[in-house]
Task: structure prediction
Amino acid sequence: MREEWVKKRENDEVRTQMYYARAGIITQEMEYVAKVEKLKPELIRSEVARGRMIIPANVNHKQLKPMAIGIAASCKINSNIGSSALASDAAGEVEKVEVSEKYGADTIMDLSTGGDLDMIRKEVIKNANVPIGTVPMYQILHDIDNKIEDLTIEKMLEVIERQAKQGVSYFTIHAGFLLEFMPHIAKRKMGIVSRGGSLMAAWMMHYHRENPFYTAYDEILDICRKYDVALSLGDSLRPGCLYDASDSAQLGELKVLGELTLKAWEKDVQVMIEGPGHVPLNQVERNMKLEQEYCHEAPFYILGPLVTDIAAGYDHISSAIGAAVGGWYGASMLCYVTPKEHLGLPNAKDVREGIIAYKIAAHAADIARGRKDAMKVDDEMSDARYAFDWNKQFELCLDPERAKEYHDETLPQDVFKDAEFCSMCGPKFCSYKITQDIVEKHSLETVN
Result:
């Protein structure tokens, strides 16, 4: 069905979702999103038109199921996958795609840096029903044999268009990191922790020239407009530790991203803003509000933020805490962190752990924001628990397989079906059962 709509637009010079929204046209993608989000199509159109919502949907990703990122929609999560120079296997990345979609990722970023990047990306897009994002800088560097000094604007634009033709729905580009910010980095404890940001810094210092993604921004926008690729304006100077949070480098770049947002909107290119990595819990709300102010309410896409620096091996938990608070205060999409963060390349098991942690964070944020029907499933779970309906509980939870594994460890399959207790309390100390017995014997409403 989506292919038919795309064919109708093939001869249009401009064919982005924002273009149609501003023209007062509700696209098929907007209709689909409205049904999924249980919102009116006109609300979706108006939010896309003003730039407060994006629908990343490259016209060349034919089997894509459209989704929306924006404050009016439910809080979304992204799953990062990708090969490295030490481990590059297309089949392994496809497995991560399958795991990501199975456990509820709303978008997937292919951050591959090793192997046949074009082939890996082709397989990832072919096997994905959700939007795929990339950081083109990784392939640019890969294609020039890791010699950053060989980067040219021509090569940069060629890679960006090549990926757009493949069906990538959003690009992270590090265009807001300007040469004038270099002195701020010296004041930091951890300098630049963004891979794309560090590469831009190396290029700028080598040539003592302005960031090429900034100087060629108009040409990048033209490519994005042609294929309806959204921009995820990267936070090159995001803090990599609590000490560096909310400093002049981070906030200076954020203001530039706001300027770039307006330029993108002039060409009807959809934009979201990437956010901080490590931020103390008491600074999360301020960071969310500053982005809304500086970037004109464009959707905020945050990595974590991690609220402590000492949770190695458990950074999916540390970051999910910050992500839930960030979503509560206005972030539209949360970029998951796996237990392997800072330690190694995640495998499919790590992807599952990261996704579930972030599904919890996103759901908690939706409840906190009072989204319609957000707590409905929680109420259903409460009813199932009180009724000892184990199968219903497994059906409603975010990871049914894990819940069954834990339950079945202590209660055999033939017992749990009718058991009015779990192994925590046993048959004689179950508070639910005790309460139910009291209610059956006494009318609690009449007790003074």
